[in-house]
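Subgroup meeting minutes
Present: P.N., E.W., G.H.
Scribe: E.W.

1. P.N. recapped why we're keeping a running log of single-chain structure predictions: easier to compare across weeks, and new members can see raw inputs and outputs side by side.
2. G.H. added today's entry (191 aa).
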Amino acid sequence: MKVCQYFEVKPYEWRGLRQTHGLRSKARRVLSQFSPHDFTAFKWGTASSFTHYITVVVLLAVFLAAELNPFYLKALLWMEPDHPIVILRLAFVFLCALPAVRELFQYINDPRKAVRMGQHVWLLLATILTELLVIKKWSKDLFLEPFPAAVKWGWGIGGALLILYPIVQFGVPSIRRYLRKHGKRGKSKVS
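Output recorded in log:
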């Protein structure tokens, strides 16, 4: 983020290649020709609305599943870590995730421009869901012992906090606004 902030506020001088003197300056100019036009600051605004909160939570869950799936698949399918399929899968998910996050960000923050989620988002979701289905199928009867109590408590507390936070952050203020708005109307009708 700091790198993006640096490049976002950095002053630039726009000169043609012929106005640039020296070999080093010309090489720098040619390299800058292939750099990004601008650096977009992604401000997800997690606590700004319920939609943004849900989007960020789902995005984190999808990426955590994408990070965990290859390790679990390697163990289930008896593959070596340097197997070409494992390497290709990691490269594919990485290259698909970059535009997918951008498409999702644009879909959530600018719904007039992006009417639908982009194809990279759907492709990434389909890939991860397919991997999860393969894991579910091949891991039957693999873990016969139940989860330890500490793990159950941890998941329970984490899930409760994920549900409680949006209720307090978004639900309670909405109810207060609703009651203020309809409470004043009800009093004015009675008078």
